Give the backbone structure.
Amino acid sequence: MKTGKGARAGQYLALLAYLVFLAFPFLWLLSTAFKPPRELGSLHPTWIPEDPTLANFRQAFDEQPLLDAAFNSLIAALGAAVIAVLIATPMAFVMARHRTRLAKAATGWVVVSQAFPFVLVIIPLFLVLKNLRLINSVPGLIMVYVVWALPFALWMLVGYVRAVPTELEEAAAVDGAGRVRTLVSITAPLLAPGIVATGLFAFISAWNEFFFALVLLKTPEKQTLPVVLTHFLGAEGVADLGPLAAAAFLATLPSLVVFAIIQKRITGGMLAGAVKS
Amino acid sequence: MPMRTRWIVALVVGLLLTGCVGCSGDDSASEDGRITLRFQSLAWQQESVDANKELVKEWNATHPGVKVEYVQGSWDSVHDQLLTSFEGGEAPDIIHDASDDLADFAYGGYLADLRDLLPERLKSDIPQRSWETATFGDGIYGVPFLQEPRVLIANATWLKESGVRVPTPEKPWSWGEFRQITDELSDGNGKYGVAWPLKEPVSATLNLSLSTGGQLFHRDANGKVRIRFGEADEVVPRTIHDQVNSDGSASSSTLGSGGSDTLPGFFGGKYAMVPLGFSYRQQIVQQAPKGFDWQVLPAPAGADGLTQGVSPQTLSVAEDSPHQKEAVAFIDFMLQPRNMVRLALGDWMLPTGTQALRDPALHTEENGWATGTALAAHLRSAPAQSVRGYPEWKDKVATPALQEYYSGAIGLGELRERLVEDGNLVLARYQR
């Protein structure tokens, strides 16, 4: 069916409006980060700062240990991503290739586990980690992030595994390869895009996570970026807006870059196996 | 070793390593026989953070046997974070919070009763009306140290040009006069006498209603609390309602706003006055356009004068802390009159201590300090902060009812019915 010029223009216009809607918070953050306090209090705010300044960035770095917090976030996010992928890959392989009742039950459990809100699990989790002496430790936080990211990572990877033709694995089996060897040498390389996408998804989730980090990390030198950002907030929602926007802008950049890299692969992973060829 | 076994061993070792790195992170309270206390501060403005850190440094320099570690908390998430820490037995020794957040922790047994721990100097320096803000049942569960009245921040030029009488703490406006003056200041064409930022309408309404004798919560002889909405409780909400809906002297668009959101309109000449917490002055100093002339006025007075409710910032000690005596000694050090002034200036608030309140730095006309300090004697415990069930009543009953009333969606009769009848049903569940 041929789309008319008017309809096409309308589609592009709608798309543009949607993009503006999505980009608005980020552009506002960007604009605010470079505005001096007096412009923040203006009745007629402008998109482009009239008197742009880096003072908010300087103040943010002076007031809070942003670099240390970014380092902690990086370790937590990288650790969570790597471990989640290491665990999820063989699990996904088993769930995709062995369609037993157990695999179905496991899939159901994965879906159900997504329904638990943070507040429901935080106190039991806190007590378990305390007994393991993992409170106030980045490895403890990594463990939580891995558990939290695993269901979705698994769901993504199962889709990728199903998209890999089983004939390749059968050929490897004919040549004498065991299941682990088949996974490592045949399936895993073909899964590389999916593994990268899944790892980056786990990375972004951990990088942005706030509540677990708030509750589980006690000392300032171990806190992650989202927790440190709240230090710019006062009682009753009052905020040190300029430095907060500057710090939040910097904290958002890694997620944006990572997401820009993986966005095609994430949608690919979700759709993988959805249609039988 | 077969390939499969190697994989499993590698995975198990990896997981064990992950766990064991954390095992080394022991955080015992003592090191080398020296006591270590963790002090969680919610200070967030740079001047305030600096003042807190300096005081911790001074303490550590002069008390070699008791080291205090400064831990940064956040107002935004303190309740959930503390609750989890208490449940897990990992709470900080010294806890910075606000008196209206303490009830659950005090009744839950998480905070130490300070009555027998507090030194006489501190007990007598802070007036009884302030101690009442942190008293739950028979115990005292926090030391109130900083407080802020709600004041009117006014466009001084606008007021001067209009020729209205400018109120002082000695001769404040009555609520009726306030309504009349905001009407005079409005032009009916986008310029309003006042902008009420009522995102959190309950605390503003209840605290200001103390000036007219409104109590709302009444404790009977059995100790049970009942809600009654009498004439004294009506004055403040009716004034606000009429300013918005009858006179058009208050902007309806700010009813859902926070205090900061009203500032651009205030600076831009849309509103002559904005009722705000005293500490908002810092934002005004930072953000006001050059040459903008503003001043601090007392909130209107009623039958009970300038009385209003406050929920001061507090310092508490965790019940689980093995070093409660040392923790209280640190609090006593933090709240020496000179130090209390430093903390107050850092947070742009008022100290509770009577000696600190005499400091000349708090009596200067600059930035309205003198007006605020003159109100200190009129500040009382916010109504209902010690009433069990108050948070649920506030969120589920009072906030929507007041928002609807102020926007004109319901009348005073329905407001009364919802606050009282629905409210008493909520409270009854907590008082069985």
